[in-house]
Amino acid sequence: MYGTLKKVFAFAGSKKGLLKKSLLFAFLSGLFSALQFAALFVVISALVSDNRDSSVIWISLGIMAVSLIGRIITTYFSTMEQTETGYCMVAEKRIHIGDRLRYIPMGYFNKNSIGNITAIVTTTLGDVENSAARVLVSVLGGFFNSVALVIVLLIFDWQIGLVAAAGVLLYLAAAELALRKSAALSGVRQHTQESLVESVLEYIQGMGIVKAFGLERDSTQSIGGAIRASCMDNLKLTKASVPYDAIKQVVVRVFSVLLLLASVWFWLNGSLSLAYGLILVIASFMVFNDLENAGNMASLLQMLAASMDTANSIDDTPIMDEEGTDITPKSSEIVFDKVDFSYADRKILDQVSFTIPEKTTTAIVGPSGAGKTTMCNLIARFWDVNAGKITIGGTYVQDFKLDSLMKNISMVFQNVYLFVDSIENNIKFGCPDATHEQVVEAAKKACCHDFISALPDGYNTVIGEGGGTLSGGEKQRVSIARAMLKNAPIIILDEATSSVDPENEDELQRAIEALTHDKTIIMIAHRLKTVRNADQILVLNDAHIVQCGTHAELIQREGLYADFVSARQEAIGWRLTQ
Ligand SMILES: Nc1ncnc2c1ncn2[C@@H]1O[C@H](COP(=O)(O)OP(=O)(O)OP(=O)(O)O)[C@@H](O)[C@H]1O
User: Is Transmembrane one of the keywords UniProt gives this record (predicted)?
Assistant: First the structure.
C-alpha cells in the first residue's frame, strides 16, 4: 500500500505540491466533519441531563453550521486541486512521452506496436488523469480521518479506543491482502486493454484489405475476441476482490457491534456516562465509515498504479541522445567503416565499408529486402550499428545530438507519411519559419503546385491521417517539396519517385536534380535513368557491397549490376526501366 501511494506521488512530478495541498484540504474537511460530534455531544448531554435551555439548540446549530461551511469550502478546494493535479500531471507525462519517443531507437517500435503505445497515451493515461488524484486523496483522507477518530476515542475512553484501533488494524490487514491480489491481476488487465486498442486500430487501418478479400467476418471475430478477453479480465479482477470485500465487511460489522456492546457494558458498570456512551456509539460507526470508503478506493488505486507502471515503462527504455552534442560537421562526406547491423538475429549488413564523397550522388541498388533502406536509416540513426562506425564529416553519428544530426539530413521516404494538418504546414514541417512564398516555390519545384492550387482550400487544405485524402504520387511530391524546403546538405531519396505517374516523372526528376545540386545525395532507385547519372553506384546483396563504381564501369563488369541492366525488367524484385 505504501509503495502504491509513493508511486502516485512520484507520478505527480512537478504537481506534487498541488497534490499535497489537496490532501491538506481533505484532512481539514475531515476535521470539520468531526465537529458534528461536538454538536451531537451538546444535544445528547442536554437530553440526558434534561436541560431544556434553548441555548442548546443555538450552540449545536452554530457548531453544525461551522462544520458544514468548513466542509463545503475545504472540499471545494480539495476537489479543484485534485482535478488540476490529475489533468496537469498527465499532460506533463504525455508531452514527456511524445518527446522521449523521438529519441528511442526504432527497435522499440518493433517490440511495442502502435496500438500498445496509443493505448498508453490515451486509455491508460486517461484513467490516471480522471481518477488517480481523486482516489489517492480519498484513500489517504479516509485513512487519516479514521485514525484521527480513533485518537479521539482513545482520549474519551482508552478501552473503547483500543477496540476501535484493533478493528482499524484488522481492516487494514484485509485491505492489504486484497491489494496484493489485485496487483497481479491489474497488470494482466492492463495488457488486455492494450491488446484491445491494438485490435481496434488494426481493424480500422486494415479495413481496405479486409473488404478487398472479403474477410469481414474473420476480422470481426478477432476484434470480438479482444473485447471478450478485456471483459473477462475485468470480471476476474472484480471477482478476485469479492472475498476480501466480504472479509472487510465482516470486520466492520463485527467491530461496530463490539464497540456498541463495549459502550453499553462500560455504561452498565458505571465507568461511562450515558452521554459519553451514546456519543461513542455514534463515533464508532463513523470510524468505519471513513475507513470503508478508503478501503473501497484502495483497489482502484492499485489498478491506477499498474497504469502508471505501464506509462513509466517508456522511461525505462534507453534513449539514443544521452551522450550527443550540438555539432556542425566539417563536411557532408559519409563513411561506413566495417559496419555490422542485424534486426534481432537477422544480419542485414556484414562488415560494410564505403565512402560517399561530399556533394556527389550515390545510388544504392540491390534486390528487394537486401537492406538498402536500412543502410540509409543507419545514417539518420534510426537504429544504432552493432559494430563498426558511420561518420558524417569525420564525426561519428552517435556523437551528434539527434536534432543536430537531423539538421543535416533531408529524407524522402518510400512510404510517405503526412500529418492531419494543412498542406502548407506539411511542407513546412522541417522548416517551420518558412514563408508562404518559399512553400509555394518548393511546391512548384516538386511539381505539386498545380494540384494543390486546384484543391478547394489550396495550401490550407487539411489532409487526412497519413495523407489519406491524397494519391500516392501526390503524397510523394508533397514530401519532396518538404525536403526541398528543408535544404539540408545531405539528401536521402528512398524510391522517391516510385509512385509518381510518367507525365510528372520527368519534370520531377529535373526538380530533384535541382534540389540535389551541390548536395550529398544518396538515392535508392529502381529506374536506370536515375541510377546511370550517379557518381557512384553501390550494389548491395547478401549483407555485402558486392560492386561499386559508375554505371559505365559496372556495365563493363560481369556481375549483379550488369545482369540487372541487361534484364531491363523486373529481376529479384528490382526493376530497371529506361
Ligand atoms: N524494423 C524491422 N524489423 C525487422 N526486420 C526488418 C525491419 N525493417 C526491415 N526489416 C527486414 O530487413 C530486410 C531489409 O529491409 P530493407 O527495407 O532495408 O530492404 P530494402 O533493400 O530497402 O528492400 P526494398 O527494395 O524492398 O524496399 C528485409 O528483409 C526486411 O524484412
Answer: yes
